[in-house]
Amino acid sequence: MFLPAGSQDETGNQISNRLRASEIFRLVTKKRNFKSISTPVVEYADTFTNDVAGMDLHSMLKWFNGEGEIEVLRPDWTAAVARAIAGQHPSEQKWSYQGSVFRFDKEETESRQAGIEIVHADRFFGEAESLLTAVAYLKNLAIDSYVIELGHTGIFETLITDYSFSDKQKDALLIAMHDKRADVVEEIVTKAGHEQLSDSLLALIDAYGSKEIIDDYRKRWAGHDDLTAILTHIERLIDLLEASGVTEVIVDLGRVKNLPYYDGIMFRGFLTNDGSTCFSGGRYDRLYEQFEQKTSAVGLAFYVDVLAKHMKAETEPEKICILASPKTHAIAEQFRMELDEQVVDIQYELKVGVKYHRTYQVVEKDNEYKVVER
Questions:
Q1: Taking the C-alpha atoms of 167, 172, 175 and 178 in order, what is their torsion angle to the nearest 10 degrees?
Q2: Which stretch of 17-26, 142-151, 251-260 has the lowest confidence by average pLDDT?
Q3: Which of 118, 182, 345, 370 has the most neighbouring CB atoms within 10 Å?
Q4: What is the pLDDT of residues 301-360, one digit of tens each?
């Protein structure tokens, strides 16, 4: 029998590491005063496809319910959490979650996430807490080779604000900027009749690197208060990270939002050994407009499957076998309960190819049962 595309079985270390990653996340967020939340795996599609959330229905696992409404397997945690906590008192600011999301447009249909959302809080505080929680979590996973990338949706939006594009053109331009396709960007801008914008956007594609690039663009954008304010904001976050011991921080001034509800700072974490993304997130204040709330909201999601692949395997405990019989199984179980640190297996006979550090056997001696080492 075969599995559907995007599905897979798992065994061994990947499962063990993922369970450890989950427990470590629970402990880290509990210590940092996050409140746990869980949302249903089945939601109405409109939670994610409405005009504010703006997600693509075609990427979701969906069906019609008995009333003819479209239901989906949860494709995104942020929109689901926003729906769940929109009615909570503003004093409830810090939330954490764990669970799967399901998308057709990803390599794996199901991916496990652990994430945080910070709402109703000072904007810089929320961003700082998000990033420092990421640093603390990775440290507790013993993952220390990573890079944090910072970007901001406002740069692209500010540069194009005086130019008219159709919705289709703007969507295509966002995709081209996201993929850093200079040729496509130039083509779209030229066809829209905005050749004078081309140089600015093409330069933005290459505006990527260490924090020194901020000084370069502060000079280039002198007199553009909105843009220089964004640069200062990014610089403050870099200073915070460096003061907290993070040395690998990069800037992507050409970063554009990959989901419609992002509207400010964006961040990602990359593992340096293979470049895989281990977390991503950003600001999404406008997501709460659908609930008639004007507030601050920021968060990030860790990709637990990715992290589990890069965690070191746990040191294997001593593995012991106790040979018993149906008559002596209870005796063997009593002995097993006395062994706290070992992995203890009870068998009726030794299996070929299965190795143990030590083997015991329940034997009868002087009308008593004893467990003795073989």
A1: -90
A2: 251-260
A3: 118
A4: 999 999 999 998 888 889 999 999 999 999 999 999 999 889 999 999 998 889 999 999
**Location of structure tokens 């939002």:** 257
Contacts of 283 (CB under 8 A, 6+ apart): 123, 126, 127, 153, 262, 263, 264, 265, 266, 296, 297, 298
Q: Name residue, tokens 């080492």.
A: 373
DSSP lists the bridge partners of residue 346 as 322
**The token pair that represents 259 in the structure block:** 């989901």
Eight-class DSSP state of 154: H
Q: Which two tokens stand for residue 181?
A: 């396709």
Which tokens is 159 given?
A: 């540069």
Local structure of residue 318 (DSSP, 8 states): P
Q: What region, left, alpha or beta, does residue 358 occupy, with left being phi > 0 and alpha being psi -120 to 50 degrees? A: beta
CA distance 74 to 76: 6
Phi, psi angles (nearest 5°) of residue 226: -60, -45
State the average pLDDT over residues 10-15: 81
Beta bridge partners of 117: 95, 299
Cβ pair 250, 147 in contact under 8 A? yes
Q: Is the pLDDT of residue 1 over 70?
A: no
Three-state DSSP at 294 gives coil
Question: What is the residue-averaged pLDDT of the chain?
Answer: 93
Tokens at residue 302, please?
């860790």
SS in 3 state form for 236-283? HHHHHHHHCCCCCEEEECCCCCCCCCCCCEEEEEEECCCCCEEEEEEE
Rg, C-alpha atoms of the chain:
26
